[in-house]
Amino acid sequence: MVADAHYFRDRGAYHLYPYNVYFDPWRNSTPPPSAVRPGDYIVVYQRKGVQYDAAQQSLRWDGLGPVGAELVLVEAGSALFRIR
């Protein structure tokens, strides 16, 4: 669960429990690309620095290397991705 605002990170993670949720309650950080595995989901809510390339089906954040991802759901200011 990634979001710029502390409240949205915490609240989003709360609603995703009992699933194993990664979020940083103290800093606006994202998991390193090496930490995500195929089948993982990434929820992005009002977070800058996340880019999705639909043609390549790749997702990148904070200028780090891309990972293969499928766009599952998109709404204004939010998106759900499944890592491939």
Précis, in short:
This protein has 84 residues and is mainly beta. It has one helix spanning 6-16, and strands at 2-3, 41-45, 50-53, 58-61, 67-75, 78-83.
Features of the shown structure:
6 strands, single chain, 13% helix, 84 residues, mainly beta, 6-stranded mixed sheet
Topology:
Elements: E1 2-3, H1 6-16, E2 41-45, E3 50-53, E4 58-61, E5 67-75, E6 78-83
Parallel strand pairs: 1-2
Antiparallel strand pairs: 2-6, 3-4, 4-5, 5-6
Task: Tell me what you see in this structure.
The protein has 84 residues and is mainly beta. Helix content is 13%, strand content 36%. The protein has a six-stranded mixed β-sheet, with helices on one face.
Indicate the radius of gyration in whole angstroms: 12 Å
Overall SS class:
mainly beta
Proportion of residues in helical segments: 10-25%
Q: Number of helix segments? A: 1
Approximately how much beta-strand content do the residues carry?
A: 35-45%
**DSSP strand count:** 6
What is the average per-residue confidence, as pLDDT, rounded to a whole number? 93
